[in-house]
Amino acid sequence: MKKQKKSIKEIVKSKYDQIAKQSKAENESSCCGSGPTTCCGEDYSMFNDDYSNVAGYHEEADLGLGCGIPTDFAGLKEGQTVLDLGSGAGNDCFVARSFVGESGFVYGIDFSEEMLQKAEANLQKMGYENMQFMKGDIEEMPFGKEMMDVILSNCVLNLVPDKQKTFEEMHRVLKKGGHFCVSDVVLQGELPESIQKDAEMYAGCVSGALPKEDYLKAIKTAGFKEVVIHKQKEIIIPDEILMKYMSEQELAAFKKSEKGIYSITVSAKK
After folding, report:
1. Per-residue pLDDT tens for 87-129?
2. I need a surface site. Which of 75, 106, 148, 172 has the fewest CB within 10 A?
3. Cα distance between residue 157 and residue 185, in whole Å
């Protein structure tokens, strides 16, 4: 199991290192490059929401990799300490800073060196002193207990092999009374086995996703309360992509079933 987890993380890290070297437009048009560990199998524009009118938006930090806007429902306030999991080039961190102001502080954590370099370059341009990007694994966060008021994440937890452990880590680093708000990918029903086993589709946010019921159960098992789904939308993957993983008959059966892929924005309180 440990070997499998390591392999998944290496695939995800390699892909996101590649994405960081490209522009948002390149990521959406070329689907992250052209190698077995860098092509996600999907066009990210199917997932991403429009940030252009969001307060604090910094275009160079937006690589088009999210599946929601968690800051819309995070209840961020002046002076809070915020952590963004899988912060990428810093998009949600810059938005969060517009809410917490000069008296707050925003941390971003990512395990991709290329993403961290891009985020740091964006931070240098903005000149903010109350923001820090750190390298780390969100299954084992480099933070002490009860440091954060709010945790954010955007289309990242679905990439983590051990989601239960990640929610437990989130619970550990949140202050009492703190909360998280994340946008993520979940399933209704189970995906065909061919998709579940495919590494490219895992790195592309799909085959690593949990059924929604299991996802919500993991949140509650970690000790969180007041779980609320603020937004949900279905993600439609084009037939030509799904045909890489199933026959025409299997595709027809899948489309007739009640199975589906959704992005949700969910919050919960410690």
Report:
1. 999 999 999 999 999 999 999 999 999 999 999 999 999 999 9
2. 75
3. 8
CATH number, residue 215: 3.40.50.150
Using CA atoms, how far apart are residues 169 and 173, in angstroms rounded to an integer?
6
pLDDT of residue 244: 76
3 state SS for 43-102: CHHHCCCCCCCCCCCCHHHCCCCCCCCHHHCCCCCCCCEEEEECCCCCHHHHHHHHHHCC
Which domain range does residue 199 map to?
A: 2-269
On whether the CB atoms of residues 71 and 153 are closer than 8 A, the answer is no
Q: Which amino acid is at 64?
A: G
pLDDT, position 82: 98
Q: Note the Cα 233 to chain centre separation in Å.
A: 15
- Going by pLDDT thresholds of 50, 70 and 90, the confidence category of residue 194 is low
Neighbours of 4 (CB within 10 A): 9
Angle made by CA atoms 258, 39, 242, in degrees to the nearest 5: 25
